[in-house]
């Protein structure tokens, strides 16, 4: 009965549907806040964006003394950092594949450690780039140890039905912020 009533009201114009897209509409607001995405975006926007989001969040919590948000924003902060790192590793991997420096590409997955291992074992020929890859090791090891497939930081339960991060109880946002700043420098 409800479906029939809904369709009757819709057909007779007495039911107004909100057809404006809630996220991608460009009407009504100032164009100064239009962001370049899709065809106008690029991989660097994604890497920078996730890293900047992590830093913005951690800075906001610490500087504004938002103690209640420590627990709720810790995972989004760490996830954004991990995702920026994953995207950077994949970007380097793909660029080296395009140049035929990497002959056997890494299968597409979220395993940041395997991407890093492949990159670090590849004879790149550029000492500075090789050093940056080496400098990523601590960050890759730390984040892949707690989240080897990009699940632990996104969900309260992992794919095995276990509590995410069950071996961890605390993290310090000041230490995370310092590490994010160093990681951002390496990635840039």
Summary, kept brief:
Helices cover 56% and strands 0% of the residues.
How would you sum up this structure, described in words?
With 188 residues, this protein is an all-alpha fold. The protein has seven helices and no strands. Helix 3 (69-98) packs parallel to helix 4 and helix 3 runs parallel beside helix 7. The longest helix has 30 residues, at 69-98. The N and C termini lie far apart (59 Å).
Name some characteristics of this structure.
0% strand; mainly alpha; 7 helices; globular; 188 residues
Structural class: mainly alpha
- Please mark out the parts with pLDDT under 50 across 5 or more consecutive residues, or reply none: none
What is the percent of helical residues? 55-70%
Shape by Cα distribution: globular
Put simply, the count of helices is 7
Largest sheet: none
In terms of topology, how is this protein built?
Layout lengths: L1 H10 L31 H21 L5 H30 L13 H10 L5 H9 L1 H10 L26 H15 L1
């Amino acid at each position: 009965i409800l479906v029939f009533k809904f369709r009757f009201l819709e057909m007779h114009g007495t039911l107004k549907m909100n057809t404006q897209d809630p996220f991608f509409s460009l009407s009504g607001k100032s164009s100064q806040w239009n962001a370049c995405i899709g065809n106008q975006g690029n991989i660097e926007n994604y890497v920078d964006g996730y890293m900047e989001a992590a830093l913005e969040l951690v800075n906001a919590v610490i500087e504004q003394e938002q103690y209640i948000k420590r627990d709720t924003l810790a995972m989004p902060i760490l996830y954004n950092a991990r995702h920026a790192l994953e995207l950077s590793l994949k970007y380097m991997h793909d660029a080296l594949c395009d140049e035929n420096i990497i002959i056997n590409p890494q299968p597409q997955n979220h395993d940041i450690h395997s991407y890093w291992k492949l990159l670090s074992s590849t004879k790149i020929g550029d000492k500075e780039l090789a050093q940056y890859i080496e400098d990523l090791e601590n960050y890759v090891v730390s984040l892949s140890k707690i989240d080897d497939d990009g699940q632990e930081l996104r969900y309260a339960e992992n794919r095995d039905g276990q509590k995410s991060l069950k071996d961890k109880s605390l993290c310090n946002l000041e230490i995370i912020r310092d590490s994010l700043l160093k990681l951002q420098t390496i990635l840039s």
